[in-house]
Amino acid sequence: MVGIRRALALLILSLYFWQFLLTALLGPEELFAAFVGLSACYGVAFIGVAAEWFWARWFAMGVGNFGSLFLLTLLQVGFEPSIAILGFSHLAVTLLLAGEGMAARYERSEAAAERWNFQEESLTQLRRAVKSAGMSLPLLILYTLAPKPELLEIGALGLGVAGLAGLVRGRTWSLFALGGAGMIALLDGLGVFGAPAIGCMLITPNGSLALSGPIFALLASTLLVVPLLFARPIVRFLRQPG
């Protein structure tokens, strides 16, 4: 069933890729950049899973976790079909890509083992970090690019994208980049740099879901979790005798 599960996950990712791309082209002009960014995010997840990049399964599951967050709004507004479709379809991506059988096609494949030679501890930490970054990157895109990005917010997005690229290549500086992006989002969401982020409108397959306030900025600050995941091995390395 691994092949069928992967095909279904790819189908959902491709649907959202085209959904956000068409929304960018046909929707409000002020949200064009945000939805192009979301489309690119889903496109990377789709290509990575299809090409069996070792980290792509984690990233796609993180993107699935991002969409699953909207299920929490059902507790406040009651059952809303558009929100339910958005949330449960993303939850399906996470569940479809889970399991040891699926891992054998990606991070535990022979090709990944020969090229990267991961230790079990480092593999676990990297999995958690990439999944966290995959969930936070769409939130960072919505925070930084909608409705009118400023230089500080664009800088946060640049740090986030660069940090994710460095993370999957095993670069230590990526932790500082992701932590910096998360810190900017946190401080901006709290209004340290002026008025808090005003939020935006997320277009769902059957309508639109308006989210206001600094919610995207605060949720994007979960990027701060990524450096913390590596705090113990970094401290252990620094304590080694010279």
The N- and C-terminal alpha carbons lie at a distance of 51 Å
Q: What structural category characterises the helix and strand content?
A: mainly alpha
Assess the beta-strand content as a share of residues.
under 5%
Shape: globular
Features:
242 residues, two-stranded antiparallel sheet, mainly alpha
Outline the structure in words.
The protein is mostly helical and 242 residues long. It has one domain. 69% of the residues lie in helices and 5% in strands. It contains 13 helices and two strands; from the N terminus they run ααααααααααββααα. A two-stranded antiparallel ribbon has the order 1-2. β1 (199-204) and β2 form a beta hairpin. It is globular, with a radius of gyration of 18 Å. The protein starts with a helix and ends with a helix. The mean pLDDT is 84.
Concise structural overview:
This protein has 242 residues and is mainly alpha-helical. It has 13 helices and two strands; from the N terminus they run ααααααααααββααα.
Secondary-structure blueprint of this entry?
Layout: H1 2-26, H2 32-51, H3 56-68, H4 74-77, H5 81-96, H6 100-103, H7 110-116, H8 120-145, H9 151-167, H10 173-189, E1 199-204, E2 207-212, H11 215-220, H12 225-229, H13 231-238
Antiparallel strand pairs: 1-2
Helix pairs in contact: 1-2, 1-5, 2-3, 2-8, 3-5, 3-8, 8-9, 9-10
